Fold this sequence. Notes:
Blueprint: H1 2-14, E1 23-25, H2 28-36, E2 49-53, H3 65-71, E3 75-79, E4 86-90, E5 96-102, E6 111-115, E7 118-123, H4 127-131, E8 133-137, E9 143-147, H5 149-159, H6 166-182, H7 185-197, H8 201-214, H9 221-230, H10 240-259
Parallel strand pairs: 2-5, 5-7
Antiparallel strand pairs: 1-2, 3-4, 4-5, 6-7, 8-9
Helix pairs in contact: 1-2, 5-6, 5-7, 5-8, 6-9, 9-10
Amino acid sequence: MNEDLQPLIEILEVVKPYLGDIVLVGGWVPIVYGRCTPIYPTKTVRTADVDFACLAPLDVRGDTMDRLLNRAGFRCDVFGNTDVPYCRYFNDRNLEIEFLTPLKGDGCTVATELQQGLTAENLRYLDVLLAHTNAIRINEELIVKVPWISAFLFHKGLSFPDRRSTLKRDKDLYYIFKIVETVDREYLLPEMKQVFRCHPGKWRTTFTRNLEKYFRDEHSPGVASVVSQLEQIPAEQSRRDVLAMRAFTTMERFAIDLKHL
C-alpha cells in the first residue's frame, strides 16, 4: 500500500503541522480510498498533482506553509494575471502542489491570500469538499482529511464542465463513472442524499443536468471521456463499443437512482 502512496506520503510529511487544517482533494482522493479503506475497492488512474483545500486565513503552525515547502525542495510559481496571483509548488521530480479555497462573492476574485507567502486559487463549489470529510489513516504517523466519496462525486459533477483542460475533464468524468460503478449503492446513495440536503437545491439540479448532458447515450462526450481513460488501464481494456456501453449503462442506472432520492 505505502509504495503506491509514497509520493503523497512524502508531501504529507512536509505539511504535517497543517493536516488538521487542510483537506486533500483532487485525484489522490480515490487513490487514498482505494488503498486505505474498503469503500472504493479498485485501482484508479495515477496523478502527480496534490491539491489541498482550506478556508482563509490559514493559521500559522510554527513555520509558514511556504517556508516548509521551500525547505523540502519545492519552488513556488505564481499564476493568474491579477493583483493576487495563486501559488503552485513544484519540485525536481515533477510533483505539483496547489492550494484551493472556495470562491465567494461576485465570483471575480481569482485568488485569496491564506498566509504570508501562500495564496490559493478560488474555485466554485469547493464548499462541498470542505463540508463533508473523513479522517483516514495513511500510516502509523499520518492521518489526512479527505472529502466523503459522495461529496467528491458531487463536486466533480458540478465542476467538470468548467475545466480548461480536456485531459482533466476526461479524468473527472472517469472518476465519476468509476465511483458510481464501484462503490456499494447501499453506501453511496444515502450519503449522496445527505450531501444534497446540505447545499442549495440548484446545485443538485446543475449536477443532474451535467450528467444527463454528458451521458445521454453511448455516443455522448462523457462516455467517450470514460472510454479514453479505461483504455489506458491494461486490466480494463476491451472493445470500444463494450466499454462505451458499460459506461453508459452504469450512468443511466445512477440517473434513475438519483430520481428516487
